[in-house]
Structure formats: C-alpha cells, structure tokens
C-alpha cells in the first residue's frame, strides 16, 4: 500500500495546491479518497486520471467534492475511447441529498456508504465510522492484504467513543488538524486542532500521525509541536509527505 497526497488544504487551496484528495495505491489499482478543489490538476501531474479505479467521498462538502464532476468528465472521455471498460465506482456519504443528486452521472456508479458493512475494494478491506462533522461524514479504514492499516479521519470534531477503537492499530493515521490558535481560516466547528489529533493518535496507539486539512494561516511547525506534545510517535504534515510506502 502506498499513500500519495494530492491536496491537504482545508476549505480553500493555497498557492497552486489543492484541498482534500489522496491516492492509495493498492494491489489491484488506485483508490482515490476525496476529490476537492485542484485535485484533478494535481492528479494530472502524477498520472492519467483514468488510472483511478475507485473513488470514496468521506462527505459532500465542496472542499472534498469540487473536482468530482471534472473526474466524471474525464471518465466520459475514457469510456468513449475504450481507455476504461466500466463507469467509475463511487462510494460516498448520501447526504445532503441535493449534492448527491447533482453529482450523479452515467460515467460513475454511485453507492451510499453503509458503516455497518465491510467492503472489499481493489484487494483491500475497507470500513467506515460516522464522525462528528456538520454534515454526515465518515472516517475511512483501509487494511491491505499484508495487514497494513491506514485510517483517514475525514473532517471531524474531537471525540473518543468509537473513534479511538476505529483508529487503533493504524500504521498511518491521516488526521485532520484545521483549528489553530489565532487562525481566522474557519470558524472551527466540526474540526480538530493538531493537539487533539495528537491526543487521538496517542489514545489509539498509531504508528505515525500525518496532519492534514491544514489551515491557510496555520503555523505548521507550531502545529507539529502541539501534536508532539500529546503523541510520542512520528508526526508529519501532509504537505511534506508527497508519497508514502507502508512497510
Ligand atoms: Zn467538511
Ligand atoms: Zn473539509
């Protein structure tokens, strides 16, 4: 399993970057997690868009879905030209319904996330936990065939019950850290600070913590120190990960 960060900004992208978008390279192909603003542009630097075999959307906020329509335009071209044989499978939060309805297209096969299920996706086991955000939103756990574990918090406020167990044992925990003292980036509701991400990582006993969904006016080194004050393992920023091979 390999993690590739396409976008890590919360809310709005900065300096040619992108909001949330990640690739997990699995045994049977590439899984994309979230597809925010600028993600398609960033993807085009790395690989052909039609190499994406599966899309998971943690929730239907624009900073996680802004480029989904563009990816579907790409798949229209890919289907017409025989570059892919099937519409893109999409597993997504089903609310708010107005966004769900607007995103439907013939180029993709949409299915609502069922947190009670475990899914087999591209040779990996994938499961979900509903988290505490301002719209229905799901944390995502991916376990590959070598039992390497990746967990993505998606957007959530800090809470422990259920979440610590869900995150427990992750080799890499990609966790949102949107809130920062003095930041005017967002109002902060339904989000965490780097210190809270660190506390969660410590409680869950993860291998490495990667902070993401970063605020445009955050002091990233101060945020890393906040997380390190709570968690003794390695703390990275999604801005510096690029790609990551699980060992
Ligand atoms: Zn959100
Ligand atoms: Zn967000």
Automatic annotation (TrEMBL):
Pfam families: Lactamase_B_2. Signal peptide: none annotated. The keyword Zinc applies. Keywords: Zinc. Residues 18-191 form the Metallo-beta-lactamase domain. SMART domains: Lactamase_B (SM00849). It comes from the Bacteria. PANTHER family: METALLO-HYDROLASE YHFI-RELATED, ZINC PHOSPHODIESTERASE ELAC PROTEIN 1. This is MBL fold metallo-hydrolase.
